[in-house]
Amino acid sequence: MATRTSGRKWAAQPEMSDEAVRAATGRGWDAWCDLIDAWPGRGAGHGAIAAFLQDEQGIEGWWAQTVTVGYERITGLRLPWQRPDGTFEANLSRTITVDAAALRERLLDPTARAALFPDVQTELRSRPTSKNVRLAIGPGTAELAIHPVVGGRVKVTVQHAKLPSAEAVQEWKAFWAAWLAARDERSPS
Fold first, then answer.
1. Are 106 and 129 in contact (CB under 8 A)?
2. In whole angstroms, how far apart are CA 145 and each of 22, 83, 156?
3. pLDDT exceeds cutoff 70 at 188
4. pLDDT, tens digit, for every residue of 96-153?
5. What are the start-end ranges of the E strands in the chain?
6. How far apart are CA 144 and CA 134, in angstroms?
7. Strand 88-97 to 122-124 pairing
8. Which of 6, 10, 15, 40 lies most in the core, judged by the most C-beta atoms within 10 Å?
9. 3 vs 52, residue with greater confidence
10. Could you tell me which residues come within 8 angstroms of residue 34 by beta carbon, excluding any fewer than 6 positions away?
11. Nearest in space to 133 (alpha carbons), one of 99, 106, 154
């Protein structure tokens, strides 16, 4: 547990620095935590806190969410990678050398997808025409965004939601990192 100079004990670090929050909102983390702790509605949950910050404190929506999540992490109401519903989410992005259209087609085709994930059961959860490919995989659902970039490279972003624990986040991040490395045509796999 981290301790700040104000004496407030932090259960976890927020994603945004104190300086960035202060520059954008006029208050640092300890001041926001003190304000939210003094607000009688804080026990009503994430949505109520974010609405309070936006409606009564005049913070723009994205920053209201950022301050709310930071408050939840600092006070121990939310663990890193944890969503408001209690599940966890692993996110990973890599730029690799691969044919974007071919990778997408392999993900959409059940037989080709089975070859891409030989030891893991998957099920397509998105329409073939959807912008991103969504799969039921492991204990959750992964959404893969495939975006070509310059030089024949492709940025693949994976968002694996509905994971049961912070440990599962670490396991699935490692899985996706290895999986993406194996797809990279420039990688010695």
1. no
2. 33, 20, 6
3. no
4. 999 999 999 999 999 999 999 999 999 999 999 999 999 999 999 999 999 999 888 9
5. 2-3, 9-10, 88-97, 122-124, 133-137, 140-148, 153-163
6. 6
7. unpaired
8. 10
9. 52
10. none
11. 106
Tokens describing residue 146 = 């495939």
CB-based contacts of 76, cutoff 8 Å, min separation 6:
11, 12
Q: How far apart are the first and last CA of the chain?
A: 40
Q: Which residues have C-beta within 8 Å of that of residue 75, sequence separation ≥ 6?
A: 11, 33, 37
Contacts 24+ apart (CB under 8 A), 164-172: 164/87, 164/88, 164/139, 165/88, 166/79, 166/80, 166/81, 166/82, 166/88, 168/88, 168/90, 168/139, 169/81, 169/88, 169/89, 169/90, 172/90, 172/138, 172/140
The beta-carbon contacts of 111-119 under 8 Å, at least 24 apart in sequence, are: 116/179, 116/183, 117/179
How many beta carbons lie within 10 A of that of residue 119, not counting itself?
Answer: 5
For 175, counting Cβ atoms within 10 Å of its Cβ (0-12 exposed, 13-18 middle, 19+ buried), the class is buried
